[in-house]
């Protein structure tokens, strides 16, 4: 009888547990699943739909979602609802309905995944629990990436599966760029936790070692956009934030010297490991990072032929930058033809097929342009406005002036999310598409959680974590 009751009216504790399981599978889901005819039933999808079903059952029985604690992010929720509606309406002018429906399903799933964080993580202690789970997921990702670099053994989800000669680690992702982007998204949480959260010495060394492994994996992916652009941008944001986010009493000469020493030690260890593990292919690719800038400064005219067949060698050593430039140019042309309403959810892949200069690629390989071209100027403007507003709100919560009011976990979360989302300005230009790139949506959801919890507690004016 109790089993029937728990199925008909799931307890909040059971739903919270299911939420955390879903979060784990959200990142590991591409690998963990059961292959079916033409599709794969991943554990993420299973837990996601079980969680949605459980919430619907509770809503039907209790006639309430108990979501008032999300009041401070109501404009983000309203935008997500409007974005979903716009995506559905855009199907009426989409050139390929199948692409549009598929993309809209991805969009709804990812937006719900994002909102599940502020919905379930209501207090600082919930945030601590969720943070620990996310850390262990990140730990598994980078440790397996290191093992992959040593053994060249790739998971079935990897593009290099059954290819023992492929040196680039992909971990639980399809390609090395996705893995690299997940690292640049996660590193700010690891680095800032070392000095913003109270913890035991053993835990601190575990987190420090995880950061070193993550940096090694990042370099071994050979991702220039993440290693050469996203990571330095996040690093600069981190350095700028230190005097504003660390209490003045902690900014002593001893602590600063200790921090510099640990940073130098990390660089030396990473250099030692990568000098042995870094493949020549990755070395050559990372060595052409400056060439990427030269390629970007070159002509933005569409070539008359496919760049892959071009005679002139680009400064970066390959044609990927020229192809990405062609994708952007063609995408903007399609946006113009759509009267700036967007080509329709997911339909840029349909219109891009056969366009000049794209080398057979159809995905935009740029999250920001993907939103603009698929959904038009209106959605893009609202998305970017709320993105920057989120950064401003995170900055205010991270400010050391609030140290007496906000607990360390909230200020740490605000600082880490701020750095991570700033770095993603370049990181979002690495994956082929981010519509189903779960690490980005997880960080976005965690940032909304920090704002919802932190703003509510800041208004209460107490460091005490409310029940």
From TrEMBL:
Q: Does the keyword rRNA-binding apply?
A: no
Q: Name one Pfam family in it.
A: Wzy_C
Cite the GO molecular-function annotations of the record: ligase activity
UniProt GO cellular component terms: membrane
Q: Where in the cell is it found?
A: Membrane
- Which chain regions cross the lipid bilayer? 18-36, 42-61, 73-94, 100-121, 133-155, 179-198, 205-223, 229-247, 259-278, 371-392, 404-427, 433-454
Domain (O-antigen ligase-related) spans 212-383
Q: How does it sit in the membrane?
A: Multi-pass membrane protein
Domain of life, per lineage: Bacteria
Q: What UniProt keywords are attached to this protein's entry?
A: Ligase, Membrane, Transmembrane, Transmembrane helix
- Please classify the protein's predominant subcellular localization into one broad category: membrane
PANTHER family found in the cross-reference section? TEICHURONIC ACID BIOSYNTHESIS PROTEIN TUAE
Official protein name in the record: O-antigen ligase
């Amino acid at each position: 009888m109790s089993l029937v009751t728990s199925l008909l009216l799931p307890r909040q504790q059971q739903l919270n547990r299911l939420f955390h399981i879903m979060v784990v599978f959200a990142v590991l889901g591409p690998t963990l699943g059961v292959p079916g005819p033409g599709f794969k039933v991943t554990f993420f999808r299973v837990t996601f739909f079980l969680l949605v079903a459980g919430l619907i059952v509770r809503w039907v029985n209790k006639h309430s979602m108990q979501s008032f604690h999300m009041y401070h992010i109501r404009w983000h929720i309203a935008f997500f609802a409007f974005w979903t509606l716009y995506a559905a309406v855009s199907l009426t002018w989409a050139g390929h309905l199948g692409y549009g429906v598929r993309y809209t399903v991805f969009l709804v799933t990812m937006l719900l995944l994002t909102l599940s964080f502020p919905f379930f993580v209501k207090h600082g202690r919930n945030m601590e629990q969720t943070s620990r789970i996310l850390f262990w997921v990140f730990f598994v990702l980078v440790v397996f990436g290191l093992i992959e670099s040593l053994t060249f053994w790739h998971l079935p989800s990897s593009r290099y599966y059954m290819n023992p000669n492929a040196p680039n680690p992909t971990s639980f992702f399809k390609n090395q760029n996705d893995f690299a982007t997940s690292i640049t998204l996660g590193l700010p949480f690891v680095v800032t936790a070392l000095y913003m959260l109270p913890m035991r010495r053993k835990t601190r060394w575990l987190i420090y070692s995880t950061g070193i492994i993550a940096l090694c994996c990042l370099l071994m992916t050979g991702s220039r956009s993440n290693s050469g652009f996203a990571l330095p941008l996040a690093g600069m944001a981190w350095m700028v934030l230190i005097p504003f986010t660390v209490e003045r009493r902690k900014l002593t000469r001893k602590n600063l010297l200790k921090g510099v020493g640990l940073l130098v030690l990390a660089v030396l260890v990473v250099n030692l490991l990568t000098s042995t593990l870094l493949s020549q292919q990755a070395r050559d690719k990372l060595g052409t990072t400056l060439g990427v800038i030269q390629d970007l400064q070159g002509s933005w005219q569409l070539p008359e032929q496919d760049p892959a067949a071009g005679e002139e060698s680009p400064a970066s050593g390959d044609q990927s930058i020229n192809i990405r430039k062609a994708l952007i140019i063609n995408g903007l042309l399609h946006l113009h033809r759509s009267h700036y309403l967007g080509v329709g959810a997911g339909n840029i892949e349909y219109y891009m097929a056969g366009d000049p200069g794209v080398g057979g690629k159809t995905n935009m390989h740029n999250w920001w342009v993907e939103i603009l071209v698929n959904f038009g100027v209106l959605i893009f403007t609202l998305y970017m406005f709320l993105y920057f507003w989120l950064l401003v709100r995170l900055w205010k919560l991270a400010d050391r002036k609030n140290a007496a009011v906000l607990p360390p976990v909230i200020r740490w979360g605000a600082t880490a999310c701020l750095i991570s989302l700033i770095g993603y300005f370049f990181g979002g230009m690495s994956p082929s598409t981010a519509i189903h790139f779960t690490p980005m949506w997880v960080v976005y959801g965690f940032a909304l959680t920090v704002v919802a919890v932190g703003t509510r507690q800041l208004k209460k004016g107490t460091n005490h974590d409310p029940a």
